[in-house]
What we know:
With about 140 residues, the chain is mainly α. It folds into two domains: about 20-105, Arc Repressor Mutant, subunit A (Orthogonal Bundle); about 110-145, no CATH class. The chain is built from seven helices and two strands; from the N terminus they run ααααββααα. The protein has helices at about 5-20, 35-45, 50-55, 60-75, 95-105, 110-115, 120-145, and strands at about 75-80, 90-95. A hairpin with a 7-residue loop joins β1 and β2 (about 90-95). The longest helix is centred in the last third of the chain and has 22 residues, at about 120-145. It is elongated and about 55 Å long.
Amino acid sequence: MGMNAAELHRLARDVRTIALRATENTGPDRVNAGELSVLEDIARNPGATVSEITRRTGLAQSLVSRISRAMADAGAISITPDTSDRRKVRIDLTPHTRSMILDRANKPILEAIAASTPKLSPDQQLALEHHLSEAEKLLRIGVET
């Protein structure tokens, strides 16, 4: 029998925990899931509007606006008026934030896997890393438009 929905949710939670460890997003200054979604979306879509971020992340527009304002106040993102539509603003990461996100995103995950799965042998941890990599490749192919 294959995986059921409950097992998929548990897997998603466990993979998220590994990702947070790998990116060192675990301390008192960590960003929450909504903030992380907004940052990830802006990183992939520089110059995005609040409406575009809302559509892609599934977060409420008011939440995306609130997160964007707070991040701009903290100096993590820049918000500039849209030159073609004064009702809109364009949002981008500051160079420092972009550099920090890319640095964290490119960290290897094996150490985080080991910390999250202490009962697995090193060979099993390597196998898990391999299977996660393969799953990511399949999902990326499957959702590309």
